[in-house]
Structure formats: C-alpha cells, structure tokens
Design a protein that fits this description.
With about 500 residues, the protein is of the alpha/beta class. Helices cover about 45% and strands about 10% of the residues. The protein is built from 19 helices and eight strands. The protein has an eight-stranded mixed β-sheet. Strand 2 and strand 3 form a beta hairpin. Helix 2 packs across helix 3, helix 6 packs antiparallel against helix 7 and helix 9 packs across helix 10. It starts with about 45 loop residues before the first helix and ends with a strand. The relative contact order is 0.13.
Length: about 500
C-alpha cells in the first residue's frame, strides 16, 4: 500500500515514503525551499512509471471495450437483418470488422462480450493469442512491478527479478523454477515477503496469460483497481464462498481467563492498548465488547475483532481461512452475522456511538459491519480502525465514519485488496492511512499484532499520537469488558 497519511485537516504527505525516513507527528512549518539537487540520470522515477502504467491500463481497458462493442455489432440481429437487404455492404463491413478484431494492426484477436465474443475470446486464450488489450495490460503490470522495485530493492535482486520477468513473459515453467530457486535461497517466509509488494500483480499476470479462459476477470478487475470477485487460478466466483461459509453466526458470553483478565485490567483508550488487547484475545473465536463512560458524560462502546486462525481451512468459528476469503470478497459473512447478534444480545442501545477495531480479518469485518446499512442505521459507527487489513475496496455506509488503516509495508495481507505499493489507485480523502517499514521483515511476523504494537510504541510513536488524537471522544473510564465466543452456528 502506498505509504501516505491522509485526513480531513492535514495536507497529504508524499505518496511514497522511503524506508529510512522518520515520520512527523504534525505537518512541518513552511521554510524556504532549498536548492534542488541535480537529478540522478540513472535513477528511474517511480511516479513516472506509475503514470505510464495508468495510461497503458486505460488503453487496455478501452481496447477491451472496443472489442466487445465491435463484436456485439457484427453479431447482432440488426446487422443480420441489414445483411439481407444489402449483402454487398454487409460482406465488406464484416471483412473490415474481422480485420480490425484479428489483425496485428488492429485489436489483435480482441473479440469478447456476448456468447459469440466470449467463445472467440476463449478460443484465443487456449491458442495463446495475445491481443492488443492483453499486451498493454501486461506492460502496465510490468511497469507497476518496476515501480515497486524502486522502494523495495529486494524485488530487483537477480533471483526475484528472474521470477517477475518470467511472469511478465507468461512463462509459467520458468516462473515455477524461479520461485523454487527463490525459496531455496531465502526460505519460504522471506521469499513470500520479498514478492509481497507485487503479489496482486503477479497473480493478475498468471490469470491473464494462462490458457484458462474463465479466470481473466480477476486480472482485469485488478488492472482497473477494483477488488476481484473471482480467484486467479480457477476463476471461481465469490458466490462459491457463500456455500462454504453459510453459518448464521452465534455469540456466547464467556468469562475471561486469568491472562486475558490481567491484560484487560490495564486497557485504556490508546491504539497500542487496543492492539495488545486483540493479541491477547487470540484467534480462536474470542471478541470483546467494551463499555466506556466517557469524559463528556456519554456512554460509548468499542468492539475488538481479532483476525484469522491459519491452523485449518475451516473450523467452528468465523475466524478461519474460508471466513477470511469470504470477508474480503463479500460483506454479509458469518463473522458479521455473529457480531451483529453480539451487539443485540449485549443490549447496546440504538443510537449508541460505536468504534470497531480489528486486526487482519477483524479489520475486514469491521469495515463490513460499517458498510452494513442495518448496523449504520441502528448505531453511530464513529470509527473503524483496521490493522493490517485489506480494506481499500470497501466503503462505510455512513460517510461520517472515520476510517483509519494501519499498514506495515512488509505485511503481505493488506495488499490483497489489489492496492499495493505500486498501485495507481487511491483511497478516499477522508480516510487516514498510516504505513511504515519496520524491522519485522518476514511474514507472518510482520503481520502479527505484536509487530504493529512494537512499531507504534517504538519508532512510529507519532502515528500512535495521531490515531489517539482522532479517538479522544472515547477517553474515559472503562466500566465493562465482556468477551464473547463467536461460533459459525
């Protein structure tokens, strides 16, 4: 994700921060600009690469639309009817359209859309035809990867570059060999961390350049900056997850164990405290509802949502891998249904202020709850704080909800929403996104709540202060800490 700090009162900081740059808690005072140093002729500007990738992506999407419109026109019933009246004209028009659709000087086998167009597109995929739209899309992804390598030099190392070059060339066998060599050289976790800044681009290239004709949507949605609703390998739609994760959700009050009770006894309205509380809850189904008597006399509520358990693909709680994929692609999930039942069972009064803080899948679920019209109509979701979560494609139902996203740029997970370090697509101006590079390089260490807590307590305390300033209305006395166990059913 692009390291930037955005809110409604502060100016946007530079779109990309170097790994050694120290963050500032407040905007710097205006001073006379120093004399600009002579540009390094050997250094490539990442912003120029991103702009070029945007132009290529726009051209690719335009060529795709043009191919669909041309295919639809040629195979429409109106054209057939006109051909009966003017066969000579129809023949000449059909030949010209075929040349435009298939010629190397035209769209280069760019037929798509409709029954006939999709059949032709599938035939082109299976015969390894690379139309103009695909060539431009591949070049756009290649530029994004090159831009990411400027801020992430490990991507430009020979072993990593061998992998990315093979993916851009569509050589899956060489890509597999390169990935195995990278793993042998660095180990699984370090290899995954190395390619994590461009993981979505690599998956999009995989879907676009293989012979499978039904997984291309993933690539085109990623190119356009959306959140893919299909998987990049088989092209299975997100609706399949609905059947794999059908639980109605259930919430049961439980008593905290001694370790959790000790952590909660020192909790306060502080982002580091919230992250530590989430870490103490674990990822086996526990969540926490907090009741706060605030300094202004109001009673407010905080909902803490932990992330995914990676032990099993599916378990009896919403915090499993199936739930994670479901939450990324959809909003009505078992986790959200269970959390809504928790709020009702706890008797949170309608109209109450509610802040939702979540890590990983918990952050995704926090945004899913905020985007739920029923939740937003029942409570005032004042804040959503997502920690290491891919939420950039989601939007709260209430435009006044303050969204705060915390991102460790070594963390693989936040980039799964399609907006990585080299993505040209941005977040809403009202959001606050704080991103950094710390010492927790390897995934999954870089994704752990403790890594985020350590960063905010260490070299990135200005970010901690900035978040705490945004949530001061929740300052007060904690009068209730109630853990709940969430179940699928």
């Amino acid at each position: 994700m692009a390291p930037q700090v955005v809110d409604e009162t502060a100016q946007r900081l530079p779109a990309r921060r170097g790994p050694d740059e120290v963050p500032s808690a407040v905007p710097a005072a205006r001073v006379p600009a120093p004399t600009a140093p002579e540009p390094d002729p050997g250094r490539i500007d990442a912003e120029l690469l991103i702009r070029a990738s945007v132009l290529l992506a726009d051209a690719a999407l335009t060529a795709k639309r043009s191919g669909a419109e041309l295919t639809g026109a040629v195979f429409s019933w109106r054209f057939g009817l006109e051909a009966l009246r003017r066969p000579g004209w129809a023949l000449g028009t059909a030949v010209s359209c075929a040349q435009a659709l298939t010629g190397s000087a035209g769209l280069g086998f760019g037929a798509n859309g409709g029954l006939v167009g999709e059949l032709l597109r599938m035939a082109g995929n299976m015969t390894y035809r690379r139309p103009a739209k695909v060539a431009m899309a591949v070049d756009a992804f290649a530029l994004r990867i090159k831009a990411a390598a400027i801020d992430h030099p490990n991507l430009d190392a020979p072993a990593a570059r061998r992998l990315t070059d093979a993916m851009v060339a569509g050589n899956r066998l060489e890509a597999a060999r390169a990935m195995l060599a990278l793993v042998e050289l660095l180990g699984v976790t370090r290899a995954l961390t190395t390619i994590s800044p461009v993981i979505m681009e690599l998956m999009a290239l995989l879907g676009m350049l293989d012979e499978n004709p039904v997984n291309d949507d993933f690539s085109w949605v990623t190119l356009a900056g959306g959140v893919p609703t299909t998987d990049p390998v088989l092209g299975l739609p997100s609706s399949v997850l609905k059947f794999l994760n059908p639980g109605p959700g259930r919430a049961e009050r439980i008593e905290p164990d001694p370790i959790l009770a000790k952590v909660l006894a020192t909790s306060r309205n502080d982002i580091v405290s919230y992250v530590n509380d989430i870490g103490a809850l674990g990822n086996h189904g526990l969540v926490l509802l907090r009741r706060v008597e605030c300094t202004d006399g109001a009673v407010r509520y905080v909902l803490l949502l932990p992330g995914t358990s990676f032990a099993l693909l599916s378990n009896s709680t919403p915090q499993d891998l199936i739930g994670a994929f479901d939450g990324l692609l959809r909003t009505d999930t078992t986790y959200t249904r269970a959390a809504k039942k928790l709020l009702r069972r706890a008797g949170v009064p309608a109209g109450s202020d509610l802040m939702i803080v979540g890590h990983s899948l918990g952050g995704i679920t926090a945004m899913n709850l905020a985007s739920d019209v029923e939740v937003s109509a029942t409570y005032r979701v004042s804040h959503v704080i997502a920690i290491g979560s891919p939420i950039d494609g989601k939007r709260p139902a209430d435009h006044t909800t303050q969204v705060i996203s915390l991102v460790n740029k070594h963390d693989v997970i936040p980039g799964l929403d399609g907006r990585g370090p080299a993505s040209p697509h941005d977040i809403p101006a009202s959001w606050v996104e704080l991103a950094w590079l710390d010492d927790s390089y390897d995934y999954p260490l870089s994704h752990a709540p403790q890594a985020y807590s350590d960063a905010l307590r260490g070299g990135f305390t200005p970010y901690r202060d900035q978040v705490n300033k945004l949530i001061t209305e929740y300052d007060g006395e904690v009068v209730g800490n109630q853990p709940y166990m969430l179940r699928d059913k």
